[in-house]
């Protein structure tokens, strides 16, 4: 055991550390959980070094900020970043602020930090039972280290597997099917969708990444058709068991609709065989939690390595939202002979929980890194040449299974949303300014004088129509629209269940026309302030009567999984006034069933314990959803949350119109130069295993 020593003056003793951490908790700088961990460790290891325990508190705190570990290098160079000071919603507290991490760690170099962690009871360097693990310059809570190791191990195994797959393809037969599904290859350039399909067909693991509308769904539906066609053509009596899933109900519903659309466009033979292939592609998409079998009150799932999922191929959309622990659970539950295909946009915000798995897996996707052997194989099966700049003789096994789709088929070259998303993604503030100099019809930008600026009701109620009408006469809507639908389509107290469901579907669909997004939760520009003001605007216009917590027209978002009600975190619903059996008016909350069936689930408001009003959502909560018109409310000052990834995610939630509301001019340009960099060792762990040929 290593006791506190010289060079640790700022944390002269354990009581000082306790007091310091309590001061941080009081200010909202640290979670009570992080301090509780230190109290526990002190009880178990009374002689532990205060510096090591401080680092343990910071490592624990990083998990709450989405990092898998504490990066000691980053901690040393900018200690205050470990607490993201100033945090959103800092709690007012009496007296002078407590010392910051930079003061506590002042004068300590990397060697001092590493030396403080040389405590075999507290910190291990690999398997064992110490509460912390130090790997290189990364300090982990053991649970997350173990999780990262399992994910790296499962991915490495999957990358090495191919021939044992059920439905393995014969490469000779691959080319004609690719030609049928994609048309003849273009000799001029590479069609990355075709390449993605071939690469994903060739192994047990594939990642297809791309921005909005780049054809991820189109490609995966063709891939599934290809796999089924090859499987059935080889004489299989039963088709492959294929499942599709997404992290949220909203994302599952979107994929469901997109798959249904893509199925119609499949170029399959017009005969019994083509029919059998089409029939064998699943039309229903489920949530990952439902697929894995969530269990109330437990973080374990019904399906795991001992009770694996009964499937031959799994497609998971919106994979950027999958955190490390969920990826671990998913990989454990997947039979070794099944394929896993991840779809997602690597540039979006990562999951709220720790880990940015998709981002890490796709970190090298822009440059391809296909080996010359892989490029030759691709040419043989797709008839396309891989551009030389995408080839790399030292490309690793993961590179050979990742494809980036680059061309948006949804946003044309003149689309403002597409141009703005690209400029933001590139982190190019000048390019962003250039887009706004010529925004086109689908973008609008409003400077706000303050929380009472009349632009706010103009956009939130009516969509700000006079500034950004579409070329085809369509107008971006605000929340006034769904409330008018709610009033006009109300089937009345005598309506039967079918008519009520149809009404709810119509209102829920109209609600998806528009969404206000915020960066923050608190303050006038956060979700709480905006929710309050938007309800007021709608009330002033006589569209809403927000009395009490529950009122007709209240849109809500579920904030925690409720297995009893079958509602998942992120599900959105709306309160509607319906009639009970005796025709008395009662309030019920209508949710889409979330299983692709189009059914409506009606829930008593009193049973909903974890919901929030959803006129305004944080950008994080909006992930996996898409709205025809999206309005992003920026804060009036830059902070740790306002980053390029966040703004990109907000813009790409809009399918038709995007409105920017800025309390201070230029804040957008500031935001795009800030990045979210998540600390994790997944790439290193994976590379280590691939290098060892595991
Ligand atoms: N190769 C293509 N040629 C023409 N149109 C295409 C092609 N690929 C996709 N599309 C069309 O582009 C639109 C977007 O495609 P798709 O839904 O597959 O993209 P996506 O990447 O899954 O989008 P998102 O994830 O943003 O919803 C669809 O209307 C689709 O029909």
From TrEMBL:
One of its GO terms (cellular component) is exodeoxyribonuclease V complex. ATP binds at residues 210-217. Its EC number is 5.6.2.3. Residues 27-140 form the RecBCD enzyme subunit RecD N-terminal domain. SUPFAM superfamilies: P-loop containing nucleoside triphosphate hydrolases. InterPro entries: Coronavir_polyprotein_1ab, P-loop_NTPase, RecD, RecD_N, RecD_N_sf, UvrD-like_helicase_C. A helicase/nuclease that prepares dsDNA breaks (DSB) for recombinational DNA repair. Binds to DSBs and unwinds DNA via a highly rapid and processive ATP-dependent bidirectional helicase activity. Unwinds dsDNA until it encounters a Chi (crossover hotspot instigator) sequence from the 3' direction. Cuts ssDNA a few nucleotides 3' to the Chi site. The properties and activities of the enzyme are changed at Chi. The Chi-altered holoenzyme produces a long 3'-ssDNA overhang and facilitates RecA-binding to the ssDNA for homologous DNA recombination and repair. This is RecBCD enzyme subunit RecD. It catalyses: ATP + H2O = ADP + phosphate + H(+). Heterotrimer of RecB, RecC and RecD. All subunits contribute to DNA-binding. One of its GO terms (molecular function) is 5'-3' DNA helicase activity. In the RecBCD complex, RecB has a slow 3'-5' helicase, an exonuclease activity and loads RecA onto ssDNA, RecD has a fast 5'-3' helicase activity, while RecC stimulates the ATPase and processivity of the RecB helicase and contributes to recognition of the Chi site. The gene is recD. Gene3D superfamilies: P-loop containing nucleotide triphosphate hydrolases, RecBCD complex, subunit RecD, N-terminal domain. It comes from Ectothiorhodospira mobilis. GO terms for biological process: double-strand break repair via homologous recombination. The keyword Transmembrane does not apply. Belongs to the RecD family. Residues 77-101 are annotated as: Disordered.
């Amino acid at each position: 055991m290593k006791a506190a020593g010289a060079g640790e003056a700022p944390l002269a003793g354990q009581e000082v550390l306790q007091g310091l951490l309590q001061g941080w908790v009081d200010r909202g700088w640290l979670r009570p959980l992080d301090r509780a961990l230190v109290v526990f460790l002190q009880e178990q290891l009374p002689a532990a070094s205060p510096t090591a325990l401080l680092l343990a508190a910071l490592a624990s705190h990083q998990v709450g900020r989405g990092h898998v570990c504490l990066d000691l290098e980053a901690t040393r160079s900018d200690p205050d970043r470990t607490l993201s000071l100033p945090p959103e919603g800092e709690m007012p507290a009496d007296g002078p602020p407590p010392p910051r991490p930079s003061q506590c760690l002042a004068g300590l170099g990397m060697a001092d930090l590493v030396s403080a962690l040389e405590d075999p009871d507290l910190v291990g360097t690999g398997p064992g039972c110490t509460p912390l693990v130090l790997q290189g310059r990364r300090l982990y809570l053991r649970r997350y280290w173990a999780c990262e190791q399992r994910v790296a191990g499962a991915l490495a195994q999957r990358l090495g597997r191919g021939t044992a797959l059920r439905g393995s393809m014969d490469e000779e037969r691959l080319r004609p099917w690719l030609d049928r599904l994609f048309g003849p290859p273009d000799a001029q350039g590479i069609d990355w969708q075709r390449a993605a399909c071939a690469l994903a067909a060739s192994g047990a693991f594939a990642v297809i990444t791309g921005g909005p509308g780049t054809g991820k769904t189109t490609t995966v539906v063709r891939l599934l058709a290809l796999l089924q066609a090859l499987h059935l053509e080889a004489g299989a009596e039963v088709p492959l068991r294929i499942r599709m899933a997404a992290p949220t109900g909203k994302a599952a519903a979107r994929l469901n609709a997109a798959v249904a659309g893509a199925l119609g466009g499949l170029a399959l033979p017009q005969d019994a065989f083509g029919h059998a292939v089409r029939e064998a592609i699943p039309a229903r998409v489920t949530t990952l939690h439902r697929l894995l079998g969530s269990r109330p009150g437990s973080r374990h799932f019904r399906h795991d390595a001992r009770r694996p999922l009964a499937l031959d191929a799994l497609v998971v959309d919106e994979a950027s939202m999958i955190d490390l622990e969920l990826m671990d659970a998913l990989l454990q539950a997947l039979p070794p002979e099944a394929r896993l295909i991840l779809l997602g946009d690597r540039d979006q915000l990562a999951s709220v929980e720790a880990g940015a798995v998709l981002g890490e897996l796709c970190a090298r996707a822009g440059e391809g890194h296909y080996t010359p052997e892989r490029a030759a194989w691709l040419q043989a099966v797709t008839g396309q040449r891989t551009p030389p700049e995408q080839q790399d003789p030292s490309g690793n096994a993961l590179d050979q299974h990742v494809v980036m789709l680059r061309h948006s088929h949804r946003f044309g070259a003149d689309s403002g949303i597409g141009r703005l998303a690209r400029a933001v993604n590139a982190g190019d503030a000048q390019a962003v300014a250039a887009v706004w100099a010529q925004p086109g019809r689908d973008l609008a930008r409003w400077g706000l004088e303050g929380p009472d600026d009349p632009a706010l009701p103009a956009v939130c109620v009516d969509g700000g129509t006079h500034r950004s009408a579409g070329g085809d006469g369509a107008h971006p809507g605000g929340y006034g629209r769904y409330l008018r639908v709610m009033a006009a389509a109300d089937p009345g107290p005598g309506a039967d269940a079918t008519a009520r469901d149809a009404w709810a579907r119509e209102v829920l669909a109209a609600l998806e026309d528009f969404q206000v997004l915020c960066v923050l939760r608190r303050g006038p520009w956060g979700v709480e302030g905006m929710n309050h003001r938007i309800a007021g605007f709608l009330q002033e216009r006589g569209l809403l009567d927000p009395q009490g917590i529950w009122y007709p027209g209240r849109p809500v978002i579920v904030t925690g999984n409720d297995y009893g009600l079958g509602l998942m975190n992120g599900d959105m619903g709306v309160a509607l006034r319906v009639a009970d059996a005796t025709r008395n008016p009662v309030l019920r909350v209508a949710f889409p069933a979330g299983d692709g069936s189009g059914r409506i689930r009606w829930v008593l408001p009193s049973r909903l314990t974890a919901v929030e009003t959803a006129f305004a959502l944080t950008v994080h909560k909006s992930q996996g959803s898409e709205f025809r018109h999206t309005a992003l409310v920026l804060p009036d000052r830059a902070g740790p949350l306002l980053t390029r990834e966040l703004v990109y995610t907000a813009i790409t939630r809009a399918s038709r119109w995007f409105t920017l509301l800025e309390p201070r001019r230029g804040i957008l340009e500031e935001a795009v130069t800030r990045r979210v960099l998540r600390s994790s060792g997944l790439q290193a762990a994976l590379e280590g295993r691939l290098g060892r040929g595991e």
